[in-house]
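Deliverable D4.2, example record:
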Amino acid sequence: LPGGASRSYGIQVAKLAGLPPGVIERAGEILGNLERGELNSAGLPRIAGRRAGKEAGPYGQMNLPNPATPPGGPVTEELKNLDIDSVTPVEALNILNKMKGMLNE
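Output generated by the structure prediction step:
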């Protein structure tokens, strides 16, 4: 239907994409705070507080891998050398299967 959605489905999409449960839980908390208009003394949404018993980095953020520095290894090298524009769908599936095997070794 034309027009906007009555609510955001980003968290559900993130869950389907397989993001870690802690990230999904924290996103739900932040969304709830924003929807309820909960603001701190500076008038900003209460989204960066550190919570007891949760593993968090500075400012309450979870420690996630840095995508700018991917782990090395044979799969990473294979991906770096892959010309994705010249691969057919069947070849892509074969390459993916090969990489999966490399990870399981």
